Amino acid sequence: MTNPPLLQPNLAAFWQAFLNQAGLPPSTPCADVYAFGSGAAMADELLALVLAGKKKATCGCLRSFELGGLPLPRVGDLCLVLDGRGNPTCVLRTLAVQVLPFEQMTWEICRREGEDETLASWQAGHWRFFTREAEAYGYTFSPSQLVVFEDFELIFPPAPTEDSSPPAMGSFIMGAAESNKMETPMESSPFIFGHRPTNPLVIVISGPSGIGKDAVVGLLRKTNPDTHFVITMNSRPPRPDEVDGRDYFFVSREEFERMIAANELLEHARVYSDYKGIPKSQVREALASGKDVIMRLDVQGAMTIRSLCPDAILVFLTATTKQEWIDRLEARRSDSPEEIAFRVETAKKEYAQMDNFDYIVVNSDKCLDQTIADIQAIIIAEHLKVKQRQVSL
Fold it and tell me: Sign of the CA dihedral 171, 173, 174, 176?
């Protein structure tokens, strides 16, 4: 394998220093030269984790590798890693390569990347990154896209032991100016670095009947496995494709009315001819564990949650056009023309409530991935706020 990137003098000098120290032949190839993440700040942040021995893996979308003509990692590869200014900093060796769909990523896999976050936040952040990357390459990222997950070890400079301090990034840069070296902040520093603890959120996905709430929440379940998804209780019979305990808890009208009388529901409403509601216990237990909570509610239910929990995040789903929405209602084939007409009339009142929502997301036909990306962006932005929402129920 040739090393055209190493024609740059500073890269070639660093590589030769590594080969000399490792006792490897001068012809030993460099499989790849790269910086982590996107942008100088992210590259330096992730590189610092590598040098501290905390980050031991990285990942990328297989489709982007293919379209970008990038070499896929192989076990035993030696790669030169750059800092945010393009200076050579360390050498990594590939230990293992795993390819699997994004939706099948588990925390046992993801935590090796060394970033201090939950699986849900890891997935949300990487979903955003992969989506932007996919747009640049001209394709649409989806949960089924294959992700290349690479485990590596730091072999030059040596990884720090538990009794030693991690090397400063500038310490191993060949030809880098002294001003490029990272300084260790004083212990009594006014600065705040790294991730801050965030409060759990209550996110309500709402909108008129037939707008696609079920489909949206169904895909959010796959991309946010560490989030608690509230299962609504319903007094109507299940539809052919619905499963009790997965889509709804289906109970009799008599049982529902008993729970209302016993004050066991967080909210409930009579929608058309049926009851819908949320048991209190599952929401409070999820919030107490630190998990975000996502609810799928009609507009009436969303307004009830707003009155009970002013800091809940209310997302209103709409369609691209009125006809697109009506086509969806008719395609369900579960309502008579009279019932559809009634739902359209009800929706007029529901759309009048839009100003009481925090966000409006367009759920277009055949663009469900974009709807999910928009909602993920909302959740990420809310967790990054300096002034966090205070949810109490």
Answer: negative
